[in-house]
Amino acid sequence: MNKPSPPIRLNVLIACEESQTSCIEFRQLGHNAYSCDLQPCSGGHPEWHIQGDVLELLDKDWDLIIAHPPCTYLCQGSATRMFPNGILDPIRLQQSEKAKAFFMQFYNAACPHIAIENPRPLKIVGLPWSTQVIEPWEYGEPWSKETHLWLKDLPLLRPTQIVTHHRCFTSAKWSAKDRSKTFQGIAAAWARQWSQFILESDYS
User: Fold this and answer.
1) What SS3 state is found at 92?
2) 3-state secondary structure at position 4
3) How far is residue 156's CA from residue 3's CA, in Å, rounded to a whole number?
4) Count of alpha carbons within 13 Å of 196, Cβ hemisphere only?
C-alpha cells in the first residue's frame, strides 16, 4: 500500500513549554506547532500557545509530542531534599511519585513520535532508562548541562556545532524559570532533524 502524500505541515505539541523556544523553531519550518503550559507564554506568540492542562490534549491528532515535564521532584539534583540528614523523606517521595505519574502520561501517550526531556533522574524514582544524553555545547551553546532524552520512534539527535570552551550551566546565576528553558541550539536541532525524519519515514 502506498503511503499517503506528505502533509504541508506536521502537527506538533510542545508540552510544558511557556518560553515557546521549540514551538517557534517548528513554526519557522512551516509546521503547525503549539506550546502548552499552565502559565501564559513568554515567547511573544500567544496565538500559538494553549494555556491549560496539557494532559487534555494528548489524545489529539499530533504527529510529534515533545514534553518537558517538571523535574523538581525527579532530578538527581534534588537528592539532598529527598534524603535530608541521610533519611528518606516520605512526603518528598510521595511528591516524586506524583511527578513520575505525570511524566509517564507522556511516555505512554498514543502518539507515533514522542520525545521527553529532563535532567538525570533520581534512581529511587524509577523512571525508564533514557534513550540519549546530550549537552548544550554539542549544539552551539557555551554551556554544559547534562540533558536526558526519552525517545519513541525518533532518531538520536545529532550534534550540530561543538563548542570546546563551555561553562557549567547549573553554576551560573539563573532563575529557576530561566534554567528550565530549552536552549535555542537544541530546539533548532530537533525541529529540523525530527521533522525531516517524520516526513521521510511516515510519508515518503
Assistant:
1) helix
2) coil
3) 24
4) 10
pLDDT at 84: 85
CB 114 within 8 A of CB 108: no
pLDDT at 5: 65
Q: Tell me the mean pLDDT per 10 residues along the chain, length 204.
A: 68 98 98 98 97 98 97 84 84 92 98 97 93 98 96 98 88 64 96 97 84
The C-alpha cell 557549567 sits at 168
CA separation for the pair 176, 127 (Å, rounded):
23
- Report pLDDT for 173: 61
Report pLDDT for 153: 98
Residue of 113, 106, 87, 73 whose CA lies nearest to 201 = 113
Cell 487534555 belongs to 56
Instruction: Please give the angle made by the CA atoms of 132, 193 and 42, to the nearest 5 degrees.
Output: 85
| CB 52 within 8 Å of CB 36 | yes
Of 144, 132, 142, 145, nearest to 193 by C-alpha is 132
Greatest Cα-to-Cα distance within the chain, rounded to the nearest angstrom:
62
Distance CA 165, CA 96 (A): 35
CA angle 54, 58, 62 (to 5 degrees): 115
> What is the DSSP code (8-state) at residue 60?
S
pLDDT at 181: 87
Contacts of 7 (CB under 8 A, 6+ apart): 63, 203
DSSP bridge partners of 167: 143
Whether the predicted model's global pTM rises above the 0.90 cut? yes
